[in-house]
Amino acid sequence: MSKAILIYGSTTGNTEQLKDFVESGLKSAGWDVTVKNVKDVDINEVKDYDLVVLGCPTWGDGELQEDFIDFYENMTEDIFKDKKAAVFGPGDSELYPDTFCEAVNMLESKLNECGAKIVADGLMVDGSVEAAAGEAEEWSASIKP
Ligand SMILES: Cc1cc2nc3c(=O)[nH]c(=O)nc-3n(C[C@H](O)[C@H](O)[C@H](O)COP(=O)(O)O)c2cc1C
């Protein structure tokens, strides 16, 4: 079975909740899924998987969630070249119109720089993550092994 690792960071619990919907969609598509908080990930583990899915909310003024910063800085071509990858994250376009889900854009750009193959357009969830359950499951279920 093809192996996927879903790596998320979450300060107030929204991405932690959202990742359950993403995990469920990946499983229904046929992936063997491992889920980890970015705090507990050694980035070299990514090499053992066919697909990496990153879940990161935007904090500050268009910044990565704090636990993702080290991970981001350690992303290299050596680890990500030709790796299938996708990114999701919640944000708030009403309060932060100019930096809405900027963390998703940042991670996608970095993945491109590292030679990864983005297999689904970044999923940006605006506001309530519960309301986006169906959308998130559909998004990840579209990523086929
Ligand atoms: C201080 C603060 C700054 C934020 N900055 C942004 C931002 O720049 N862009 C954005 O889209 N959302 C922003 N948000 C909204 C968060 O991304 C949103 O609340 C998200 O669901 C938090 O995810 P988490 O609970 O997994 O940490 C901000 C929220 C707070 C409280």
Question: What can you tell me about this protein's structure?
Answer:
- The protein has 145 residues and is an alpha/beta fold.
- The strands form two sheets. Strands 1, 2, 3, 6, 7 and 8 form a six-stranded parallel beta sheet that branches. Strands 4-5 form a two-stranded antiparallel ribbon.
- The chain has one domain: Rossmann fold (3-Layer(aba) Sandwich).
- It has five helices and eight strands.
- β1 (3-8), α1 and β2 form a beta-alpha-beta unit.
- 41% of the residues are buried.
- Flavin mononucleotide binds at residues 10-15, 57-62, 65, 90-92, 96, 99-102.
Give short descriptive properties of this protein:
about 140 residues; alpha/beta; Rossmann fold; two-stranded antiparallel ribbon; 5 helices; globular; binds flavin mononucleotide
Helix content: 25-40%
CATH class: Alpha Beta
CATH superfamily: Flavodoxin domain
| CATH fold assignment | Rossmann fold
Number of domains: 1
Task: Give the topology string: H per helix, E per strand.
Answer: EHEEEEHHEHEEH
- Give the distinct bound molecules: flavin mononucleotide
Strand content: 15-25%
CA distance, first residue to last residue:
8 Å
Write down the overall geometry: globular
- Record field, number of beta strands: 8
Named at the architecture level, the CATH assignment is 3-Layer(aba) Sandwich
Task: Give the low-confidence spans.
Answer: none
